[in-house]
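Bug #77: duplicate submission created two jobs. Keeping one. Sequence:
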Amino acid sequence: MIEIRNIHDFNDFVEQLLSQNESDDLEYKSAAGGFPGSFWDTYSAFANSEGGVIILGVAEKKNGLYLDKLSDELIEKYRKDFWNNVNNTSTISCNLMKTDDVKVVNYKGHNLMLFCIPRARREQRPVYRTTQPYNGTFKRNHEGDYKCTEREVQRMFSDANVSCSADSRILCGYDMNDIDKASINQYRQLFSIAKPDHPWLALDDKDLLQKLGGYRKDRQTGEEGFTLAGLLMFGKGSSITDNECCPDFFLIFKKNLTLNYDGPIELFLMEHGKQIYFNFIDKYCLAFKQFYPNLLFWKIIYVEKKLRLTSLFVRP
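Kept job's structure:
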């Protein structure tokens, strides 16, 4: 995300921005006819995506950018309008902004307003317009703001439940056909080596997954099914990358013989020129076991959208 805090020369910064087209983290808004209502679509989209900067007072047209002639009085009115609305849940569900996130810049005699919209934290999403999350939640793709589907909004609400970790989210519509049998067998082998007399080894696959947190029942709602952690550990590649689970999923491994190990990261992303997907167990057995046959503790990191890291520790 473009960062505007602690910038000293805003004229030079604006000069650089105005040389760019709109993108996944940059949006121009004309304010010649009033504070634009579409501002809040973009606010929602940036907040639910990776954040971004909105420049108010610039019109993007086919043949270039045009600067509005906004008076000092109009700028002050827009400033008040913004702060009144960003703190009004009838306009937007969550105020993510600090005073330093809004800057007024006089660029070559033209007043511009810069808004640095941060990415909302997991527990703050979805950020939506008005009071209708299923009709007012947006996401950012390239240079456009797109309304989220009901399923995408539901996933955000589920992930925002801080009383339940994201890894324990119950996935809709998944069954044993989405689980890779060979990966469960590989895990059983690892488990039996570490703890040959453990009673869980006698359980069937579904009961074992339930013990491991890969399948659970929500006692409040009665909903039950495979969890995100279960699919990431044992799921088939196509099931993991389904929109319901982790559509942007791929793996990196960090060798971790001790908790404080800080060595190089090894990447296994390509095979025959194509990106391939593995679950954690499959990947471990394929790549790591040949190098570390006695390794019974390892750290796995999965990456989802622009290197957003989540750690998972596994003890067989």
